[in-house]
Amino acid sequence: MQNISKFTNILEKNRIEALTDGIYAIVLTLSVLMIGTGLYSGSVDSSTFYSSLHEAVPQIFNYALSFVLLSIFWVVHHRQMNSIVHVDSLYIWLNMGSLFFITLIPFTTNLNSDFSEYPLAVAIYAANIMVISLSYTLSWFYAARGRRLVADDLSDSTIQNGIWRGLLTAGVSVIVIVAAYFIHSEWATIFFLLIFVGGFFIKNPKPTNDPT
Amino acid sequence: MQNISKFTNILEKNRIEALTDGIYAIVLTLSVLMIGTGLYSGSVDSSTFYSSLHEAVPQIFNYALSFVLLSIFWVVHHRQMNSIVHVDSLYIWLNMGSLFFITLIPFTTNLNSDFSEYPLAVAIYAANIMVISLSYTLSWFYAARGRRLVADDLSDSTIQNGIWRGLLTAGVSVIVIVAAYFIHSEWATIFFLLIFVGGFFIKNPKPTNDPT
Amino acid sequence: MQNISKFTNILEKNRIEALTDGIYAIVLTLSVLMIGTGLYSGSVDSSTFYSSLHEAVPQIFNYALSFVLLSIFWVVHHRQMNSIVHVDSLYIWLNMGSLFFITLIPFTTNLNSDFSEYPLAVAIYAANIMVISLSYTLSWFYAARGRRLVADDLSDSTIQNGIWRGLLTAGVSVIVIVAAYFIHSEWATIFFLLIFVGGFFIKNPKPTNDPT
Amino acid sequence: MQNISKFTNILEKNRIEALTDGIYAIVLTLSVLMIGTGLYSGSVDSSTFYSSLHEAVPQIFNYALSFVLLSIFWVVHHRQMNSIVHVDSLYIWLNMGSLFFITLIPFTTNLNSDFSEYPLAVAIYAANIMVISLSYTLSWFYAARGRRLVADDLSDSTIQNGIWRGLLTAGVSVIVIVAAYFIHSEWATIFFLLIFVGGFFIKNPKPTNDPT
């Protein structure tokens, strides 16, 4: 039995973590490449310098928002991997799926940043965040259901906590999309703050299933 | 003897893995930089915003295709490394050769994405995929032949499985090239789906050589 | 108790290090992308080749300055992690905060490099350095105060040394900002050399609190 | 004593390796970003497509050359780290110095690739390679001299082998510079093949200093 796991297709956790951390590191850094591109679009004189710099400010805020959301996802992935005892082929592909949508973040961040007057641009960004959170929720559901890939004594409340938190982020993304179309597209992303508000209402998991 | 391995030129598996994972992380993320460049080519008004966004859709599909193919290669590399017990100098250079062609993927992906009306552009992309799969097949053949770098009890069917899977991807790439020239260049890459079809016909390896 | 730490929210040091090292690797390399962009802005003849190359020289110096400052921060982060025994949620978020400002370095380096005739551009760069050093000082203060996350026998002088070094870099950044406005903006960054001068006056920490 | 090493300034080998592997992964991949930029400089019709593609061929060869040279340096660094038992502060800074010149490779590769008709462009590229090899030779000399950072029983011939190989690459770089000015700048980099020729004349190290 150990032979099977060793020589056929069990992939170790640590290389998934290495690839994931590498992709997060790149995506966290990449969006910054687009900041201040107005400054490099030709000859710059004093007035264009200050106006271009002024333009860069909302770009930095949008980049910061993506940085915070990606950090949350990274911590979520981290917690999942800490609970997971072994991985199987389907879990790896679910993980690759999540990573695909994470690599789209620099593109959708720039879309949201440069075209926030179009509700569609903001909605694409929020939809990207929604898909990532649903994807991580699905991964966790797959791993935890029936204790498939996690420790047998992992508490029910830890499992439920992971699912609720994923659904919270997805739900908040829907609110942002609605707000982009019906309230104000340029300020809609401020509703992402609801993730932190909502977090207070999700009770912390009990470590064990003990009846105490 | 241990002295030799320690102080001359045995390079450990884990650093090869670190470099490989790093390069995969970058290549998986890099192509996205080209998505939606039409959106940044000057002043954007309402009509150009929607038409540029429309243009980005096939780019995202082509990027997704590369993401899937690279993920397959990453899993293949992973399985090879899991079976390999030690590495030698030639294996490292075979690995660097594979990595070279992997780093060309962002360039050939963009070629395929932006010039898919030219069969040559699609063929270059498919040829890149073909060379990578042949390169990994060669690495595996070198490592497994005579159990050179793998465990002595690795089953024959595991070794053959690796070779067949590599040849499958290379063969499918040839079909894509032919399709690009003789059927329709813009839809030729859809034949890459044959990798999944073909995968069903390759029987899973038996873990051991036991006669049972 | 161990159950709690395992299954809820203790994140291991090594993944924080992996993400941090990945981001440093990218940021250390990224600024170079902007070097010599003048060379690619159109058709290049003999005279523009030499003049563009000439332009690249100060860019390389500014990139080298960022490389040195980032290297210092990387070593600082390294020392902190070496002393830290375990991490908690707040420390991770302090770390992500530091990383955010580190990812801004390629942008502010280019700002400083291409617009050094504007004191504001130089000041933004120096402010970025200042915020990073204050952020690391805060992380260290949080981790070390009351031996919260560090070993119980970590000496007082090691803790104070970390704080003094952080404040030194922050203080030197303030000097650079003042120099950019009141002395000469294009030469103001030379005052960053004061970090090395100031380093001589910070006494090395004693390893233990032993009265000897 | 162990306390000192733990809590003051000994930095572990593995994090230096992580940062180094990350930077190599990025630099190995980065140059490819410049390949085929002619294809994206505006509206592309059939004739410009083929001529731009034709232009990309020498770019790919120049990128391949950098890939091979960087791979050699990576293997060299790897061998050094395998022999080194512990690291000190100066070794880390020598390592950061090498990395600085490695991060310049994408810039100098593009310079060499796009302006190979100027001897100066080729010479800058070769000088970059020369500085990297001298830098690694110096690191090795520092680490190995008096067995400062390496094992006490490391053979003399292993130490000398590392130094000779470093000087070989540096010497070949000088030949390339001379060839760029006095023979033909566009073909001068072919002399880098002398590294492989020269490698045959450097005898492999004996693992031990035993008189046998």
Automatic annotation (TrEMBL), chains A, B, C, D:
GO terms for molecular function: potassium channel activity; proton channel activity. Keywords: Ion channel, Ion transport, Membrane, Potassium, Potassium channel, Potassium transport, Transmembrane, Transmembrane helix, Transport. Coiled coil: none annotated. InterPro entries: TMEM175-like. It catalyses: K(+)(in) = K(+)(out). Its main location: membrane. The chain crosses the membrane at residues 21-40, 60-78, 90-108, 120-142, 163-181, 187-202. It is found in: Membrane. It comes from the Archaea. It is a multi-pass membrane protein. GO terms for cellular component: membrane. Belongs to the TMEM175 family. PANTHER family: ENDOSOMAL/LYSOSOMAL POTASSIUM CHANNEL TMEM175 (PTHR31462), ENDOSOMAL_LYSOSOMAL PROTON CHANNEL TMEM175 (PTHR31462:SF5). This is TMEM175 family protein. It comes from Methanogenium organophilum.
